[in-house]
Specification:
The protein is an all-alpha fold. The chain contains three helices and no strands. Helices cover about 75% and strands about 0% of the residues. The longest helix has about 90 residues, at about 45-130. It is rod-shaped and about 130 Å long. The termini are far apart.
Length: about 130
Amino acid sequence: MTDTSDEEPLLMPGGKDEERQNLLGGTSENEDEDFFLNGPKIKFSKSLQGVKGQVEEVTGIMRENMAKIVDRGNQLTELGERSENLSQMSDEFLRQGTRIRQVAWWQQKKPLLIGGSIASLLIVLLIIILSG
C-alpha cells in the first residue's frame, strides 16, 4: 500500500535535524526558534542569582512542609485507627458489663425464688392436709 496523502510525515528517519526541519517548516540557523523543541534558554545575571537562590530556598521549605503534611496525614490515619479500636473495645466492655450484671442479678434472685417456691409448696400441702 502506498500513501497517497499530501501530508508530510513529522518524524523522518534522518534524525533530530530533519525532525526540526519538519516541525519548523524549513531549516533554521537561529537556535532561539527551536523554543518548542528545546525549551526556553534563560541566562541569569548576578542580580537574578539572588532571586534564584531565594526561589530555591522557598522551594525547599515548601518540600519540607509537604513532607510534614504527609507525616501529619499518616499520624491522623494512625490516630483514627486507634480511636476505632478503642471504640470497639468500649463496646465489648459494655456488653460484658451487661452480661455480668444479669448473671449477678440471677444469682441474687435464685435463693429468693427457690425459697418462695418451697414456701408456696408447703402452704399448698398444709391446705390439702388440713382440709382433707
